[in-house]
Design goal:
The protein is α/β, with parallel strands linked by helices and 358 residues long. It folds into 3 domains: 52 residues, lambda repressor-like DNA-binding domains (434 Repressor (Amino-terminal Domain)), CATH 1.10.260.40; 132 residues, 3-Layer(aba) Sandwich (Rossmann fold), CATH 3.40.50.2300; 152 residues, Rossmann fold. The strands form 2 sheets. It has a 6-stranded parallel β-sheet with strand order 2-1-3-4-5-11, sandwiched between helices. Helix 7 links the parallel strand 3 and strand 4. Helix 1 crosses helix 2, helix 8 packs parallel to helix 10 and helix 11 packs across helix 12. Pfam families: LacI, Peripla_BP_3. GO terms for molecular function: DNA-binding transcription factor activity; transcription cis-regulatory region binding. This is LacI family transcriptional regulator.
Length: 358
């Protein structure tokens, strides 16, 4: 509000009356203030809402891909908590596109939600989220965190989860271990080298798969196992067909991996389908560890060893953090890390090699 007032050359009180459509304000002055708000990207509806007592008793959710079981389950957690607080949740989907995310946030602001849970497409391009905070709408990040935004975030330790999964395969004797990760295909083939140096700041850097690649590399380094760009394949942003194609390319290498770590649930399906299409026995010909403990991973033969993350708890925790903010809790943003679990089933078997000493 102060920025709008400064831009229009009026007091904060006058700006509030002009945007809130209350009190005595001349038409010319009201137009000037609203023009200033437009230039600064402030929605008059949002600012008007911020000037009123009470609220709409609604919150917003911006998922990266609500067709993905992870986000669908997280949304269930958000909705459950919203209902417990007497609120409704308004759902939007960004398709992991920044322009769509910006538009979704604006739609939610125009609907006068009192807070937003968002899985951000970018960890650096967050001005639209900052603007929401500036007009009194708290933001909580889900699945991804950003040092560029002072906001609570609810995540898992993606690097450690991947490290544990790959270490499990290494302890079984595997050394040529492939990885399939949900990363923008335009970042391949340099993604491995850039992950190792921590310089992943291009498009897709917000994705948890980047930290999972780092965990993969760290585990391979621990065992002095070779890691190279041909062993890490990028599936694109959540495309099942692309995941299967990249998994097939990985298995078609002249020296194919003896084991694969699939870094998300889409990649897990891709590896399993590609292996079946090639007639590879799991774990006889290929060992694999997947990500996300979805129902289908226990129904196939063999049932899959997976890294299980808690999407329902993540959604609930994000919503509880949001309601604490809505109620006026004022403190620096907190990064909340929920635990994962490696669930060992039957999709990985020993390869006979021993761990090399450092």
């Amino acid at each position: 509000m102060a920025d709008v007032a400064r831009e229009a050359g009026v007091s904060v009180a006058t700006a509030g009356r002009a945007l809130g459509d209350y009190g005595r304000v001349g038409d010319d002055l009201r137009d000037r203030v609203k023009a200033a708000a437009d230039r600064l990207g402030y929605s008059p509806n949002v600012v008007a809402r911020s000037m009123r007592s009470g609220g709409t008793h609604s919150i917003g959710f911006v998922g990266a891909d609500i067709s993905n079981p992870f986000f669908a389950t997280a949304l269930r957690g958000v909705c459950d908590v919203a209902r417990e607080h007497g609120y409704e949740a308004i759902l939007t989907n960004s398709d992991d596109r920044l322009d769509v995310e910006r538009a979704a946030v604006q739609v939610l602001l125009d609907k006068q939600v009192e807070g937003i849970v968002v899985a951000p497409t970018s960890v650096t391009d967050v001005d639209h989220l900052k603007r929401a905070q500036e007009v009194g709408v708290p933001i909580v990040l889900l699945d991804r965190s950003s040092s560029a935004l002072d906001a609570d975030s609810v995540v898992i330790d993606n690097e450690m989860a991947a490290h544990d999964a790959v270490t499990y395969l290494l302890n079984l004797g595997h050394r040529r271990i492939g990885m399939l990760a949900c990363v923008d295909v335009e970042e391949s083939p340099e993604v491995v080298a850039r992950a190792g140096t921590g310089r992943l700041q291009a498009r897709g850097a917000a994705r948890p798969s980047i930290d999972r690649i780092r965990g993969y590399l760290a585990a391979m380094d621990d065992y002095l196992a070779p890691s190279s760009a041909d062993l890490v394949r990028c599936t694109g942003l959540g495309s099942p067909a692309q995941a299967e194609r990249e998994a097939d390319a990985l298995l078609a290498l002249a020296q194919p991996p003896t084991a694969v770590f699939a870094a998300d649930n889409v990649a897990t399906q891709g590896v399993f389908r590609a292996a079946r299409r090639r007639g590879l026995a799991i774990p006889g010909d290929l060992s694999m560890v997947g990500f996300d403990d979805l129902d289908w991973t226990t129904l196939v033969d063999p049932p899959l060893t997976v890294v299980a993350q808690p999407p329902l708890d993540m959604g609930r925790t994000a919503a509880e953090q949001l309601f604490a903010r809505i109620k006026g809790e004022d403190r620096p943003g907190e990064r909340i890390v929920l635990p994962t679990e490696l669930i060992v089933r039957s999709s990985a078997a020993g390869h006979g090699a021993q761990k090399r000493s450092a």
